[in-house]
Amino acid sequence: MEFPVPRPSSCGVPDGLTERIVYEFKATSIPRWMKPIALAQADLYCFFFRRPEKRVQLLWVGAGKILTIHEPLNRYRALETLNRAWEVYRGARPKPPKPWKCKRCKYSKICKIHS
Fold it and tell me: Which pTM was predicted?
């Protein structure tokens, strides 16, 4: 499957980047929900910037704790994320967000995918 090559202006930017590591930071009140999102995002950055490792830090806002995850690129997760995005780009219906997110969203009345 061919993916369009993004222009530099349309690429995401990691919070940090070294010769080996991509760094991503998230502040959240619910770390268990943010963790898979942050890891997928860091894997995409590793894939695009050709870095072998990622370091993700999640600041648990309510508790004042920081969870640090340092691990190798999960190439499978990066490619699966890209494949899902590609399918939506090609017309597949995206997976709806969690119902609680729709309750807080100002676009829920016009959204075609909300829960």
Answer: 0.79
